Amino acid sequence: MKIEGYELLDELNRGPITTVFRGRQVALDRPVLIKVLNAQWQKDAELAERFRREALTCAKLKHPNIISIFDISTDSNNLFMIIEFVDGDPLDQFIQKHSPLPFHIIESITGGIFAGLQYAHAAGVVHRDIKPGNILISKEGRARIVDFGLAKQSDFPTLTAQHGTVGTNNRRHHQSG
Questions:
Q1: Residue 29 sits in which domain range?
Q2: Are 108 and 136 in contact (CB under 8 A)?
Q3: CATH of the domain at 60
Q4: Tally of structural domains, the chain
Q5: Final residue of a domain: which of 84, 115, 141?
Q6: Cα(164)–Cα(171) distance, rounded to whole angstroms?
Q7: Nearest to residue 52, comparing CAs of 27, 71, 28?
Q8: CA-CA distance, 105 to 162, in Å (whole number)?
Q9: Strand-by-strand arrangement of the 30-37 sheet
Q10: What positions carry a catalytic annotation?
Q11: For all residues of the chain together, what is the average pLDDT?
Q12: Phi then psi for 152, rounded to 5 degrees?
């Protein structure tokens, strides 16, 4: 796959709906994540709309504990978003590597998660899929909330059936975005 202006370095996660690549934005020479809607779903209007909404929802949230979206684009074959690259580990892997965590680290991580969620809720966004795989801990120790794919935003009509269940399974992945 080729995306103009970006170099794809390696695949980090291939899920049933999206694939995430570590990449480099050529013009600015910076690392990025590239989240691509898998080919078999490109023509699915509902999934394409969810993907677009994820980018729009996350792009409006500017907070140090929430991942940043740089762009969403379509080329002739791909729907993709360009996401801030955070060098770190998902919370579950971070805990495994550093267990037992000192209380001040636990307090810092949970405080960051709560601050990010409070900010999102004040902006009318409910994440709806908070789990260890959707929290990254940067090398600097900052908790970052990722993957707003199931988020509900107060000014968007919902795509979830009434009384439906949302969430994803707890599969391991890096940088889900």
A1: 6-84
A2: no
A3: 3.30.200.20
A4: 2
A5: 84
A6: 21
A7: 71
A8: 39
A9: 6-14, 18-25, 30-37, 79-84, 69-74
A10: 129
A11: 86
A12: -110, 130
Q: Which of 106, 109, 98 is nearest to 143 (CA)?
A: 109
For the residues 2-25, what does the mean pLDDT come to?
93
Residue 157: count other Cβ atoms within 10 Å of its Cβ. Answer: 6
pTM for the whole thing?
0.81
**In a shared domain, residues 98 and 46:** no
Percent of the chain whose pLDDT exceeds 90: 59
